[in-house]
Design a protein that fits this description.
Blueprint lengths: L2 H11 L3 H8 L5 H7 L7 H19 L5
């Protein structure tokens, strides 16, 4: 995952970087370092964000129509 994909996935989820930090316990400066290229994005981040995006899509398909 590169910085653009990270940012796009946050947007898809409707999250800010601060939301990601709160949900994962990551220091608030860490995602900024990823986006600016100071440090690489760890392998667990795309896996986590992918799972959250899948859950959001499933919610949209199966739960929202019934609300």
């Amino acid at each position: 995952m590169d910085a653009d994909q990270y940012t796009a996935t946050l947007t898809e989820l409707g999250w800010k970087q601060s939301d990601f930090c709160r949900k994962t316990g990551v220091n608030k400066s860490t995602p900024s370092n990823w986006v600016t290229g100071k440090t690489p994005i760890p392998a667990w981040v795309p896996a986590y964000l992918g799972a959250m995006a899948d859950i959001k899509r499933l919610h949209r398909v199966y739960i929202e129509p019934n609300e």
